[in-house]
Structure formats: structure tokens, C-alpha cells
Design brief:
Length: 241
């Protein structure tokens, strides 16, 4: 059961907009004000983060409350991962708004955690949740990969071969890498080794990016990928179709 559908941002017809539905999961009735506050924080952070602010006219945003549990796992403060039932999340979303393009589930938990699937993601009520949500939507909606490092060398989490993600490459030459048109003389965009959860053999475009740390903005390559996807909705042809 879904209750309390509220459309806070309706900028145009759903067939020509990116329709994001934010679902409350696991909130008791007396905790629903916390969900409303969490949603307000997510909305504020979304539009304060480039490129979403300048493209907000392409986004329809709504919130609703689900009585069905969609996420498990974030019950302790040291949990960093959530277990998301993607099929259940989509079933709930379609029942309340058939035009939904992507779903973000907000779990009533103080843990620092997030998870993503295909066009669906989940976060908690942690103070960093709005930034975590942007990172997870980067995965779920815009096809962006993690840019942080881990032990080992290529292949990374994306598997063998040139990664499909626009912000990863096995090519370390700025003149040949897939984002070569965005490479800058000052080094803000180039080839930086260490990404996709390995330290060598995989390159990212910039020293800092939200896909590397939630404390940073999206790098130019990731901003371009997000922009291309959102603009594709203007023509009713989202890039993943």
C-alpha cells in the first residue's frame, strides 16, 4: 500500500521529463515528519549539485510512503550496505505513479549506507544521506562507476575489458582516452590511476569527484554523462531505452 503521494516538482509532461519518485520505507506514523524533512534535504542537495540545478526544468520530483518493506540491512550504525528488493520497489512505484523513471527509497535508519540497482537506489536518514543519494543515483540512473580505489589491479569491479561506464577507462593516455575531448591543460580532467575499487590499471578523469567521495562535486566527465541523460528525456528518448 502507498499513501501520501505529493508532487513537489512538476515541470512538464512525464513523457518528456525525468520522473523521480522518492519512497519512504519503514517509517512509523509518528516518524513521517522525519521522512518529509529527509526528502526536503534530498531535494535541496539535488538542485544545489551541478548539473541538476541548471537542468531542474527536466525533472519531475515526487514523494510517497510505502507500507511494504523494501529494504533490509541498515539497522546498526556500522552497517554500510543495504539489501534492496528492486522488484518490490518497482511494484510499489508503478502502483502510485506509472510514469516513474527511477526510484529512490529512504529507509528510517541512522546508519551510513546506500545501495543501487537498475534505475533504483536506497539511502538512509544519515546526515550524509543526500550526498550518498547522489552517488547511488549516479550508479543507478546515469551509469557512473565508483572512482575510489581498493587493493589490487585491473580488472576492477566492472570486470575485464574497457569499462562501459563513461568515467572509467583502461587507457591511461589523455590523448586517447574516451573523455579526451574534455581533457584540460590544468589537469582538472586527465587520466588518474586508481578507480573501480582497484589501485592500478584503471583510470578516472579527475582527482576528485562525487563518485570517488561524497564530499566532492561531480567531475566534468560525470556532469556531461548526467546532462546527456537528462536532456534525452526532452526528446522522449532516454538513453537507456
Amino acid at each position: 500500500m502507498v499513501t501520501g503521494l505529493v508532487r513537489t516538482d512538476r515541470t512538464g509532461p512525464p513523457e518528456r521529463r525525468f520522473d523521480l519518485l522518492v519512497l519512504a520505507d519503514g517509517f512509523a506514523v509518528d516518524r513521517l515528519p522525519q521522512f518529509v524533512a529527509a526528502y526536503a534535504g534530498l531535494r535541496r542537495e539535488l538542485y544545489a549539485t551541478a548539473p541538476f540545478g541548471t537542468l531542474r526544468g527536466l525533472v519531475n520530483l515526487a514523494r510517497a510512503v510505502s507500507s511494504e518493506r523494501l529494504v533490509t540491512g541498515a539497522t546498526l550504525s556500522d552497517h554500510r550496505m543495504l539489501v534492496l528488493d528492486e522488484d518490490a520497489a518497482w511494484s510499489v512505484a508503478r502502483s502510485v505513479d506509472p510514469d516513474t523513471d527511477a526510484v529512490l527509497v529512504v529507509v528510517d535508519s541512522p546508519a551510513y549506507a546506500g545501495v543501487s540497482g537498475h534505475l533504483v537506489a536506497a539511502v538512509t536518514c544519515h546526515e550524509q544521506a543526500p550526498r550518498v543519494a547522489l552517488h547511488e543515483l549516479g550508479h543507478a540512473v546515469f551509469g557512473l562507476a565508483d572512482e575510489y580505489e581498493g587493493p589490487g589491479s585491473a580488472p576492477g569491479a566492472s570486470g575485464p575489458g574497457e569499462p562501459a561506464a563513461p568515467n572509467l577507462s583502461l587507457v591511461g593516455d589523455p590523448a586517447l582516452v574516451k573523455w579526451r575531448d574534455l581533457v584540460t591543460a590544468d589537469g582538472s580532467v586527465g587520466c588518474y590511476e586508481g578507480a573501480d575499487r582497484v589501485s592500478t590499471g584503471v583510470y578516472r578523469p579527475s582527482p576528485q569527484c562525487l563518485m570517488r567521495s561524497v564530499h566532492d562535486p561531480f567531475c566534468p566527465v560525470c556532469r556531461m554523462a548526467i546532462t546527456r541523460t537528462l536532456v534525452s528525456f526532452r526528446h522522449a528518448r532516454p538513453l537507456w531505452c
